[in-house]
Specification:
Layout (H helix, E strand, L loop, with lengths): L1 H19 L4 H15 L5 H13 L4 H40 L9 H25 L3 H16 L5 H17 L17 H24 L3 H14 L5 H12 L7 H13 L7 H40 L3 H30 L3 H15 L5 H15 L1
Helix pairs in contact: 1-4, 2-4, 2-5, 3-4, 3-13, 4-12, 5-13, 5-14, 5-15, 6-7, 6-13, 7-13, 8-9, 8-12, 9-10, 9-12, 11-12, 14-15
């Protein structure tokens, strides 16, 4: 019964995040940090930064993988599934309904959407402040964060973040490999075995190889759909925005949906909370109804599940090694710089366009940091404020 209550708690918390997490993957990490690290203390600051860094290495939706990872750490494999469902279903349902209506309401131009973008600025700024205080306490780590900030700002490619994390890990290893730490390792026994992790990684690679072959030798539409969505979810680095042009290349030239329908769904995907990968639900629904929407969602997120379940058991073992801990100190500092870079672009540059926008951001920031109001209140206030000032 206690385990059931734990799963229910994971589902309810992640569902609330699924309804209120606007602003894209980096903003989602800010919402997660506030809820899971600061408010509920389900995961420690350093473990959260390490999980974020791991998910930056992996292809697929990084914020969704972080959410799955936290669910796994809290409630095992079922906890990861429950966490994923709660965070993802709100936007999946919204996009399936939108696709069934097939009517572009111009959500991306609405005032309340502008307000929600400003909320994303506030949430990420608050998260970066909290992480910087704990993860960059000395000059060396501040310089690592500054390096990550400058490089990711000046060279904005899908692989820059991965390169920065690797360099920061090497620097951290050199500087901190012999540092003794009085800090206790977070968490207890890890709820996933290395054997299960190996099975998940093998399955990930096997599906990636087998389904393109099956697609060539059969004419079954569902196999072709699975292959397109699974491959898109497997080979995308850089977050949800990167998967959108890839999906366009997969489905528009082939005639599965036209350019106008694709752009209508793109606008709707920007307007709903949760991960942008749920755009697959819209495409699947346009092609094969609501069943196609659910099938597409399963196919595009399956690689994320297999990768996070496959790598977490080994990651947990590696990070207990003292020399690896030194590398992780550098990696954690680089995550602060990467998030600060993302705070400026694309979040700030696409949200703070006029003095009135900055004024609203200042009000929302004060509500979150000084008055310590819950994030859902900030989201509602931001939506109302954006509607008023537009």
């Amino acid at each position: 019964m206690n385990y059931f209550k734990q799963l229910l708690e994971i589902f309810l918390v992640s569902t609330r995040l699924g309804f209120t997490s606007f602003g894209g993957p980096i903003a989602h990490l800010g919402y997660f940090h506030e809820e899971y690290v600061q408010r509920r203390k389900w995961i420690e600051e350093k473990s959260y930064a390490e999980l974020v860094a791991l998910c930056q290495f992996l292809p697929g939706p990084a914020s969704s993988q972080v959410g799955i990872g936290i669910g796994v750490m809290r409630g095992g494999v079922v906890g990861g599934i429950v966490s994923f469902l709660g965070f993802t279903l709100p936007s999946v349902i919204a996009l399936i309904i939108f696709a069934l209506l097939l009517n572009n309401f111009g959500f991306e131009e609405a005032g309340w959407i502008s307000g929600l973008k400003i909320v994303a600025v506030v949430v990420v700024a608050h998260a970066v402040m909290g992480m910087a205080k704990k993860l960059t306490p000395d000059l060396q780590r501040k310089m690592i964060a500054l390096f990550a900030l400058i490089v990711t700002l000046l060279w904005q490619t899908a692989y820059t973040q991965i390169g920065v994390i690797i360099v920061a890990g090497v620097v951290g290893y050199v500087l901190y490999r012999n540092q003794t730490s009085d800090e206790r390792a977070s968490g207890g026994p890890f709820p996933i075995s290395k054997r299960l992790g190996s099975i998940c990684l093998t399955l990930f690679l096997g599906l990636l190889i087998i389904f393109p072959i099956l697609r060539q030798v059969t004419s079954i539409e569902w196999i072709a759909l699975f292959d397109s969505f699974y491959r898109s979810g497997s080979l995308v680095f850089g977050g949800g925005h990167v998967v959108l042009p890839l999906l366009e290349q997969e489905f528009v030239p082939s005639g599965w949906l036209n350019e106008q329908d694709f752009l209508a769904g793109y606008g709707a995907a920007q307007a709903v909370p949760g991960p942008l990968f749920t755009f697959a639900a819209y495409i699947g629904t346009v092609i094969n109804g609501w069943q196609g929407g659910l099938f597409a969602t399963f196919a595009i997120f399956l690689p994320a599940f297999l990768l996070i379940l496959g790598t977490l058991p080994f990651w947990n073992a590696l990070r207990s090694n003292q020399k690896i801990k030194g590398a992780l100190i550098g990696v954690n500092a680089s995550v602060v710089g990467i998030l600060l870079s993302a705070l400026y672009h694309p979040i700030w540059t696409s949200s703070i366009l006029a003095p009135i926008d900055f004024a609203l951001a200042a009000i929302l920031f004060s509500m979150l940091v000084f008055w310590k109001l819950p994030s859902w209140v900030i989201v509602v206030a931001g939506a109302v404020g954006g509607f008023i000032i537009l």
